[in-house]
Amino acid sequence: MTGRRQIHLGLFILGTGSHVAGWRYPGAFGSFQDIASIQAIASCAERGKFDMIFMGDNLYADPAAHPSYTVRLEPLTMLSAIAAATSRIGLGATTSTTYGDPFSTARAFASLDHISAGRAAWNAVTTANTVSGANFGRAHPDHGQRYAIAEEFIDVVRGLWDCWDDDAIVADRSSGLYIDPERVHALDHVGPFFAVKGPLNIGRAPQGRPVILQAGGSGPGQRLAARTADVVFSVVQDFTEAQAQYKTFKALLPEFGRRAEDVTLLPGVMPVVGRTAREAFDKLKVLQSFVSETNALSLLSDRFGMDMAGYDLDGPVPDIALPDSYHSFVGVMLAKARRESMTLRDVYNLMAAARGHWVLCGSAEHIADTLQHWFENGAADGFNIMPPYFPEGFDDFVDLVVPILQERGLFRTDYTGATLRDHLGLDRPAPLRVDRGQTDTTALS
User: Fold this and answer.
1) How far apart are CA 347 and CA 362, in angstroms?
2) Could you read off the pLDDT of 318-353 as tens digits, one per residue?
3) What is the C-alpha to C-alpha distance for residues 367 and 404, in angstroms, rounded to an integer?
4) Are 56 and 73 in contact (CB under 8 A)?
5) What whole-number distance in Å separates Cα of residue 280 and Cα of residue 94?
6) Alpha helices per DSSP H over 118-263
7) Domain residue spans in the chain?
8) Per-residue CA distances from 60 to 23, 173, 214, 232, 301 (Å)
9) Cα separation of 234 and 201, whole Å?
10) Regarding predicted confidence, which is higher, 413 or 432?
């Protein structure tokens, strides 16, 4: 490897694939509860030298929704099992800032970082879907309040990770001193939403702080990510849009004392890979043949936050306001629909294929060319790969596309570090002390 800038690759792991009907493809995995299948997916990603695997999550069950969003293992439990079956790949899990609590979240991800020897990442989400609150006995906060809660929640979690100095655990057999109390610090946080004394009851994480992931597409979400995230997932549909989004986001970073290279921006992409373009399009045709009109209306209603049953799927996209949930998904899709005079069925076909993310279908060479173009022309730092189905849909990318990127010097041929921060080129942060008597919204950047 030279000093040349390299593509970063994450795997968005859904056991039945990102396509809503991926589980129906011949030979595809049909469950996101079978740990052997999930470990096989993780092993393939590690064989492909991916930076990390990442698991999204939700907090409710809808039998009409995507199978892997309805029936799945709890993320941290699942990733602990994957940690034992892998050695290098990063492990990202989603936990809600709206329905979790900072102490438990900080403790769980510090534990995963210890279990995995420094490979943990927390995807901090505010939870978009309004029905989640019913499972916690509370009303779902509006968009603005969810982000206000998230701001404080993330600061508290990072503060808790910093309560232990790296050398606080002495374990000196001769003196009998196990923990040096001068190197363990209370947090003593009191804010609008949380009061947390600290410290955690676990020593400092191998990475110092586990990596923070975010995917907020709204204005508040982008600013929160610019201040706190190490990796940001984005929703895009075309190159020009991705370029503009990349430039806008990177321009936010200096306000928070950060450089462009401090945050990795990964657009989501569902690659349908063939040895030829015809083979790839035949695969996509098979997948789309499994999609029904009932599926379409259910998915559109969920994403748009309103009942779409009264609209003609073959008619124009109605003029609707952005919902309180799924801001980035819906905003991107509506903009594309208006730009290209799409019907509702057109919008649905894109959503069904990759839940609103970019679909890239073609030969391995074409897909490698396209990813390289985006990477080298200011549209991405890498990509969050969302295979339509497993295992073949992901094997095709690892076995056909990754070697092309490696031959071009764009992607690693082997891991050069042991932790996720190493893979991302991020420094290990030192514990940061702030005045615990006040809320500091910049010191933990």
Assistant:
1) 20
2) 877 666 555 566 666 677 677 767 777 777 766 666
3) 10
4) no
5) 31
6) 143-161, 219-228, 239-252
7) 8-273+361-424
8) 21, 50, 20, 24, 16
9) 34
10) 413
The answer to whether 89 and 50 have CB atoms below 8 angstroms apart is yes
Task: Kindly provide the residue ranges of all beta strands, DSSP E only, lying in 111-221, ordered along the sequence.
Answer: 120-125, 169-172, 177-179, 189-190, 195-196, 211-214
* Side chain identity, residue 68: S
Read off the pLDDT of residues 169-185 as tens digits, 9 standing for 90 and up: 999 999 999 999 999 99
How far, in Å, CA of 139 to CA of 198, rounded?
A: 28
pLDDT tens readout for residues 4-37:
899 999 999 988 999 988 999 999 999 999 999 9
Q: Which of 6, 1, 4, 18 is nearest to 268 (CA)?
A: 18
Nearby residues of 363 by Cβ (< 8 Å), 6 or more positions away: 273, 274, 275, 276, 277, 279, 280
Asked if residues 158 and 429 have their Cβ atoms less than 8 Å apart, the reply is no
Residue 157: how many CB atoms within 10 A of its CB? 32
Judge contact between 418 and 120, C-beta under 8 A. no
From 300, 271, 281, 294, select the one nearest 405 (Cα to Cα): 271
Cα–Cα distance, 278 to 353 (Å, whole number): 18
Strands 189-190 and 195-196: antiparallel
* Secondary structure (DSSP) of 42-92: HHHHHHTT-SEEEE---SS--TTS-HHHHS---HHHHHHHHHHH-SSSEEE
**pTM recorded for the entire structure:** 0.87
**Tens digit of pLDDT for each residue in 213-271?**
998 778 889 999 999 999 999 988 889 989 999 999 999 999 999 999 999 999 999 99
Helices (H), 377-433: 392-396, 402-407, 420-424
- pLDDT, mean over the chain: 89
Side chain identity at 411, as an amino acid letter? F
Instruction: Please state which of the four CATH numbers 3.40.109.10, 3.20.20.30, 3.30.160.20, 3.40.50.2300 is assigned to the domain occupying 8-273+361-424.
Output: 3.20.20.30
Calpha distance 334→300 (Å, rounded)? 12
